[in-house]
Amino acid sequence: MKNFLMNEFGKEQGEKIYQQQQQKFCALVKQSIGKSESQLKTLKNSILPRIALYQALKELPLSKEIAFQIVEKGFLQDLQEVIKNLHKMEESQCFYKNFCMSFSKDLKGDNWESTIIQCDNKAMIFTMKKCLWHDTCVENDCLELCKMFCQGDNVCYSSMKKITFKRTQTLGMGGNCCDFKFINNEI
């Protein structure tokens, strides 16, 4: 994040914004009371750094929209590494099976409340009624960032060739759930 900010704002201003982001990040972590170890890990690695940056940027003489665009730009840049890893994993013969096994394992964690509807060699379909990303954005009055996280799923999962990703709604975009559908393209 520090390098991204220095590229966006120059070394001096980027460093200053990064320091403010780090202060806000530490405060947000301290406020994360009652979270499990796995939730804290997700919060620290994925959610809170971006909320802290958004908060820091909004304190500058920037509009809320510009602050959002900057956070989104950094987020989308970070997703490129995830996409690259997904494409590399797709090279394996058992990609769909491994992908579903990994996702199913993650769904059993406490970052979500999910219901698996189908999980076989044709498709993996599930819904989420509760999501740590959504809850955290609501708690920190930045639901617009949740929309960005939801869009990140679309960017990552739509890039796959061996699996088709479909979704009609998300909590972050005003839906009553997040509906996920991963269709195996190899059968």
Please characterize this protein's 3D structure:
- The termini are far apart.
- This protein has one domain.
- The longest helix has 26 residues.
- It contains seven helices and four strands.
- 60% of the residues lie in helices and 15% in strands.
- The chain has 187 residues and is α+β, with helices and mostly antiparallel strands.
- The chain has a four-stranded antiparallel β-sheet with strand order 1-2-4-3.
- Percentage of residues in DSSP E strands: 5-15%
The largest pleated sheet is described as: 4 strands, antiparallel
Q: What would you call the structural class?
A: alpha+beta
- Compressed to H and E, one letter per element, the order equals HHHHHEEHHEE
What's the shape? globular
Protein name: L-2-amino-thiazoline-4-carboxylic acid hydrolase
GO molecular function: hydrolase activity
Keywords: Hydrolase
Helix-strand blueprint:
Layout: H1 2-9, H2 11-30, H3 37-58, H4 64-89, H5 95-107, E1 112-119, E2 123-131, H6 132-139, H7 143-157, E3 163-166, E4 178-184
Antiparallel strand pairs: 1-2, 2-4, 3-4
